[in-house]
Amino acid sequence: MVPRRYAVVLPAYLAGLLALDTQFGLHVQLALGALTFVVLAAALRPLSPLVRAQAIGVVGFATVGEVAGSLVWGVYHYRLHNLPLFIPPAHGLVYLSGVALSRRLRARAVVCAAAAGAAVWGIVGLTVLPRLDVAGAFGVPLLLVFLWRSRSRATYAGVFLVVGALELYGTSIGTWRWAHDLPGLGIPDGNPPSGVASGYVWFDVMALLVAPWLVRAARALVTTERHEPDVAL
Fold first, then answer.
1. Domain housing 83
2. Counted domains in the chain
3. pTM of the complete model
4. Does residue 53 lie in a domain region?
5. Please, what are the averages of pLDDT over each run of 10 residues along the chain (233 residues)?
6. Which residue of 88, 100, 117, 222 lies most exposed, with the fewest beta carbons within 10 A?
7. Is 212 within a domain?
8. How far apart are CA 61 and CA 65, in angstroms?
9. What is the gyration radius of the CA atoms in the chain, in angstroms?
10. Domain assignment of residue 211, yes or no
11. What is the distance between the alpha carbons of residues 77 and 179, in angstroms, rounded to a whole number?
């Protein structure tokens, strides 16, 4: 079980982290990255092996997505045009924040708030926002399907709410910026796009799928090491 206080403490840390990053250069950014790995390790310590594996899986899949989306495709860029060291562990903290939020509030309320927020965001992105957000709108229906059909809908909803808040905050202070159009496709995109959280849903889906396998693999490795006979020299 993820402690409910994570729903407040971890987003507060992430907000402070993003604000600090805008004030300093690469060396401080590296230090913030090291600190965030320590914070993630501390946050994982009291959790069950399965939840730890889920968070670690999110870090892995999200990092691949970051490299592909930012460094390779150029859909968005961070302030220094790199992949900040704090981003991979921050994805783990975002996941734990979302899970904690879904536990702190009634699951139904969290799902309804996420569904309504995603739908409204997608509509205003196509109608009244200063930047036309066609690309983001494509992701909203996918997110709504997961919120409707998945057994993990409360987790996805909690993550969406945390991601949405951090995306609005991070882009407003200049930590990162989304391209006006998807490179190579020319499809208008928001800053941030309304459907950005659907990408996080895929990270979560994959992490939830591989987490049991990671736990079994770790247990098998520990069992093998314990039963390995000593070799006399």
1. 6-219
2. 1
3. 0.92
4. yes
5. 94 98 96 98 96 95 95 97 98 96 91 94 94 93 89 92 95 97 96 85 84 83 65 48
6. 222
7. yes
8. 6
9. 19
10. yes
11. 8
